[in-house]
Amino acid sequence: MTAAAVTIGAQPEGLAARRALRNSRLRALGFGVFAVLAIYLASKSFDVAAQFSFWIDKQGGQAATLSTTVGAIWVVAAAATALVAVLQLRGAEFRWRPWLLVAIAPWIAALIGNLLAGKPAVMTNVIAGSLELAAPISMAAMAGILSERSGMFNIALEGKMLVGACVAAIAGSVVSLATGNTVLAVLVAVVSAMLVGALLGLLLAWLGIRHKVNQVIAGTVINIGALGITSFIFLRILSRATQFNSPPPVQAIRIPLLADLPVLGPILFVATPYVYVAYALVVILTYMIYRTRWGLRLRAAGEKPAAAGTVGINVLQIRYRALILAGLISGLAGSYLSLATSSSFQLNMAVGKGYIGLAAMIFGGWHPVGAFLAALVFGFADATQSLLSILGVDVAPQILQSIPYVVTIIVVAGVVGRVRGPASAGQPYEQG
Amino acid sequence: MRHVGSVLRRVLVPFLSVLTALLLGGVVIILTDFDNLQHIVTDPLGTLVGAVKGVLAAYGAMLAGAFGDPGRIGTALQTGNATDIARAIRPVTETLVSAMPLIFCGLAVAISFRAGMFNIGGDGQLLIGALAATTSAIYLNGHAPSWLILIASIAFATLAGGAWGFVPGFLKARTGAHEVITTIMLNYIASLFVFFTLTTSVDLRAAGSTTPVSKQLSGITDVPNIISLPTIRLDYGFVVALLMAVAVSWLLFRTTKGFELRASGFSPTAARYAGMSAGGSMMLAMSLSGGLCGMAGGFLVIGTVGQLSLDISGGIGFNAIALALLAGLRPSGVVVSALLFGALTQGGKRMGIDTGIPFDLLLLIMALVIMFVAAPGLIRSIWRVRVSKPAPEIASVSTESAGTL
């Protein structure tokens, strides 16, 4: 701000406070309207049954069923919304954004209940499915965090995942054809996807750092190129020689003992290895970024590279390494697509997952734990969409499919809450 | 003489970029030709010859598809037979037909780039424009004369595309949401939305069709053709595209608004201190950008194709980025590059039919073109030539106005 802005800043101070108060009252009014709307919706749907069931021991075994009516859920939603409205009345300093989640959760449950219209929903599948679908998004978000914490934009996650998926499919098929050993084939597939991801990460770093190409343009180059080369390979080779596009599938693993826990076991401890790797990555990255010297340097490179350089940190080296590491992770996330979802590579099979990963990173405030939770939201949106389409709900599939994209825009636009990223992300750095 | 030299130097990097990208595309063709490569141990020389032959066949088909056979055009013109002339000049006119939407979308990318916005949502804006044109043509059918329907459809297409482009501009200006993410997401949403309307709307859907396509619009209205010969599709949409290039050039370099757009793109902070509204420029640039793409969609469905389908954009949005960068974000350059890319597109289709090499190779070539244009240092080290620095606009976009990414 200029000096002039500071001197006249005193007057609008009171104005700003009054405006904030008015906004908070308007917000309270808005919450109130929604609470009344929920009561109205409740009165309409007391005769609609809502059944949510959980597998107790295993898929298709005994189930614990929660039976209620959709109206009851709407009552809960109305109560929660009214509570937030009342709390908001306290004034402008009320932190309403976290409380918004309290109100939104029962709304979503009730809306899903209305859509299901009495059809029983197996929540074990929805929750386990959310975790499963969140895994690649979470991994992409981790890759994004590593890059941006070091000061580099990484739009190219999408392209790296796509190429990773393609390479994993080919490598897995070839090794499986040659040796017949499926475990070895999967390992080779995953490792080669990661290596290709790392190479693309290196390319991105090289273009951005050495040639000072705008990092968004460099990322777009990789994304368009990845779409081109994978579609080319698919159409020229894989669609004709399908034996090169049938990698062994990665299946769910039961963790002994833990998987026998009632209700929780089938949700948390029967999953593909990717889910466990995604958990592990969250823990490892949180520790590495916030508790190690390397992490401190990484964050310094992304926040204030000039200061980091002054104390003798090799900023460019840190950025190169971060992007290679991010490439490894996004290649791994890509291999999930072709090994764990369809056991083959398909045209443009990433369908925006890389960008959604970036949205999860932003939503999660550039913190691994936050990004993982955000990825869960996207996973839940995906899982709900497949639940609704499996049960044959009367909503067009295209509308359901567009939900994750709409949520991504809302998240990136920061409607859920403004967040601040690494200060110098995207800025080239001249190392003396 | 010095003028000629400076022009030559300016086109050196774009020229070498395209050449290098095509050469690398050739390498990819060779590496994926397993029928040829399997003899590499027993007959290395034959494999090498086969590889070169394969690439020459592919690019030969591309050339033939893009420009036809000049000798044949000459003889056909002498005989004066309409069918012969049409058949001979069709490759050239089809190249111009392919260039038409590329000019619109290339201008769109150039405008947004100049204002510091990276619009990769051209495909979505084009699709929404095409949907608007289709809808208005079908609903106005019988209520208005054909020429009025044409104008109204194109106008609605432009408005709809502009609105679709306004959203990311608004979000960037108000919340800092990065346009690369929002435009890509809007691409997916646009595609799903068009899919949705084509499957559910009885008014729009072609009766008895299993794939999501709209009714034929050619019976309702059509963009008049420039040359009236059988099978020639070149229409006045191409002329409008050229006029738009002039208009964009005038707007960017001869008006105050254009100056503000460029200033905000160059440095939003400096523009703000000079009393300009950087956010307003972002929204304006994205709306204009989306409007141009929407107009392209309108001309595609009403004129060229005559029917709305999901694959109507065919990656034009991505190609437009490559060609706008290749053109150094100059409207005149956009026209030239769009003609080149139109030739590549048209040739690529012919290559796919003649040699079975998938059209998607072009996407890779486009990506390489963008890379080389944005990193002239690569061209310098490959070809050992002295090159100038990239246009400052290309270097500066979205670094200062980065927003949330």
Task: Record keyword descriptors for this entry.
heterodimer; A: 432 residues; mainly alpha; ABC transporter involved in vitamin B12 uptake, BtuC; 2 domains; three-stranded mixed beta sheet; two-stranded antiparallel sheet; 16 helices; 5 strands; 70% helix; 5% strand; B: 405 residues; 17 helices; 73% helix; 0% strand
Folded structure, characterized:
- The complex is a heterodimer of chains A (432) and B (405).
- Helices cover 70% and strands 5% of the residues of chain A.
- Chain A has 432 residues and is mainly α.
- Chain A folds into 2 domains: 12-119, no CATH class; 127-412, ABC transporter involved in vitamin B12 uptake, BtuC, CATH 1.10.3470.
- In chain A, strands 2-1-3 form a 3-stranded mixed sheet.
- In chain A, helix 6 runs parallel beside helix 8 (215-238) and helix 14 (353-363) packs across helix 16.
- The model of chain A is unreliable at 1-11 (pLDDT under 50).
- Chain B has 405 residues and is mainly alpha-helical.
- Chain B has a single domain, classed as ABC transporter involved in vitamin B12 uptake, BtuC.
- In chain B, 73% of the residues lie in helices and 0% in strands.
- The N and C termini of chain B lie far apart (47 Å).
- The interface between A and B is large, with 54 and 56 residues.
